[in-house]
């Protein structure tokens, strides 16, 4: 059954949100604060986290929040936690954090309380950091509230401060030849708000990396590239895969409502994976249609061109972004037959 969508915020609420963003922004740190960040090889970095929120088919305010922690540099999942949430705020451009961050903070707090040894040393966030209407996107918001280094990784360009996805921008994208190539995102203010990154040799579309908290832009870009087996950084990709899988398992269980509730409660408990990660990677033993929104990046041998175009068309249909004033469409999740 679909739930009633969250009510559109009043002007007073929007003003309070702006004030809260300004208050938290004063606490944001846009430089490296950790020893591993200053090492060219990231020596000392052992755990990288990723977060994601996936939506339920036909339900604009019901979703699954997911946190994963991967070993570095192996990029194997060592911890995962997902649970269903009811989003209390609607999607409003520039205020995504008020819709999603409270649930992500809860996941980080659960990890700190139950398995502090698996706390990530940095979080990769599916969204923007300082590349934002008021210089304080979801990655900044989450970073300040958790006091963890955070990196914003967006799949589409947020068109602020004069940045546009125009012909000149597309020409710059065409000049990105090899994985790791970048160009700066400089707005009309003259400030570099982030970097466009060709994250994989076969990717035709860049990622848009920006500072979240307690990290420099140079380190944010380099770390994002090092975490990419495919176009999407592995921590974010795994959080996305596992949140969607959790929705399928939770809402697709056969049996009585009581049995489904019991299974759901069990699955909401944080899961610590074996030392070498789960028994099999999430992209094995699963048909391609189950990989979710980044299906082409889940292939063992990704191909350039057609598959990337298909993936980006799917992303435009299914993902929420802060570059539109319209509420995002819900993600379509199919239950198993």
TrEMBL record:
Region of interest: Disordered: 249-337
Keyword field contains RNA-binding: yes
Composition bias type Basic and acidic residues, residue spans: 260-274, 286-301, 309-324
Keyword list, A-Z: Cytoplasm, DNA-binding, Endonuclease, Hydrolase, Magnesium, Metal-binding, Nuclease, Nucleus, RNA-binding
GO biological process: DNA repair
Keyword Nucleotidyltransferase annotated: no
GO molecular function, one term: DNA endonuclease activity, producing 5'-phosphomonoesters
InterPro entries: Endonuclease-V
Pfam families linked: Endonuclease_5
Co-factor requirement: Mg(2+)
Intracellular or extracellular location(s): Cytoplasm, Stress granule; Nucleus, Nucleolus
Biased composition (Pro residues): 326-337
A Gene Ontology term for the protein's cellular component: nucleolus
Family (UniProt): Belongs to the endonuclease V family.
Subunit structure: Monomer. Interacts with PABPC1; the interaction is RNA-dependent and stimulates ENDOV activity.
Function as written in the Swiss-Prot or TrEMBL entry: Endoribonuclease that specifically cleaves inosine-containing RNAs: cleaves RNA at the second phosphodiester bond 3' to inosine. Active against both single-stranded and double-stranded RNAs. Has strong preference for single-stranded RNAs (ssRNAs) toward double-stranded RNAs (dsRNAs). Cleaves mRNAs and tRNAs containing inosine. Also able to cleave structure-specific dsRNA substrates containing the specific sites 5'-IIUI-3' and 5'-UIUU-3'.
Stated name of the protein: Endonuclease V
